[in-house]
Amino acid sequence: MLNFFIERPIFSTVISLVILLAGALAGFNLPIAQYPQIVPPQVQVSTSFRAPTRGSWPNRSPPRSSSRSTAPRA
User: Fold this and answer.
1) pLDDT tens for each residue of the chain, 74 residues long
2) H or E element: which one contains 17?
3) DSSP class per residue in 18-74
4) CA distance 42 to 21
5) Can you give the pTM of this predicted structure?
């Protein structure tokens, strides 16, 4: 069967164009309701925090940790 298409390149091209045209017509006629819903990705991060003792963890306060973990990286 492969030799049939190799020996007839014009027929192969026409068949390819017919399939392409049928796909394009189907895509343009598809109602908007049939397209999938596009939802932006979401990330959820959960951590546990142990309160530091006085002087054991400088610069590790909850507001500082939160601001460092949610700030976008450049």
Assistant:
1) 789 889 999 999 999 999 999 999 998 888 888 777 888 888 887 777 666 666 666 666 666 666 666 666 65
2) helix 9-29
3) HHHHHHHHHHHHS-GGGSPPP-----------PPPPTTTSTT--HHHHHHHHHSPP-
4) 37
5) 0.43
Instruction: Confirm if 45 and 69 have CB atoms less than 8 A apart.
Output: yes
DSSP state of 16: H
Dihedral over alpha carbons 54, 57, 59, 62 (to 10 degrees): -80
Amino acid at 13: T
Closest among 71, 73, 72, 49 to 62, alpha carbons compared? 49
Structure tokens at 45: 């991060």
